Amino acid sequence: QVQLVESGGGLVQSGGSLRLSCATSGNFGGIYYMGWYRQAPGKQRELVAAITGGGTTNYGDFVKGRFTISRDNAKNTVYLQMNSLKAEDTAVYYCNVREVGANLWGQGTQVTVSS
Fold this sequence. Notes:
Blueprint: E1 3-7, E2 10-13, E3 18-25, E4 31-39, E5 46-52, E6 57-59, E7 67-72, E8 77-82, E9 91-99, E10 102-105, E11 109-114
Parallel strand pairs: 2-11
Antiparallel strand pairs: 1-3, 3-8, 4-5, 4-9, 5-6, 7-8, 9-10, 9-11
C-alpha cells in the first residue's frame, strides 16, 4: 500500500526556520510531481511549492524566495525548507505526490508561527 508520511512541522517564532519532509512507502510506478500545499483555517488549500521529476520547480507567489523545495529521487522523498517564517505561514501543510493513475495526499503537518 502506498503511503505518504510527513514530518517536521511544529511551533516556531517569526523569522525562524522549519524543514518539512514527506517520505513515501510502497510501490511507485513513476512519480512525475511532488509538491507541498497548505491550508489555513477558513481558507482554501493553496500551492506552496512543487517540483517535477526533471527538477523544475514552482512556488506560490507568497514564498518570495523564503522556501526551497527539493527531492531525493532515490528515496522518493520531498523536502521543504522554510526560512524567514511569518505568522501568516501558519497552516496545515500537505504533501502531494502524483504518478500515472494516482494523486496522493499526506495526512498533513501543522506549522504554527508565533509573532
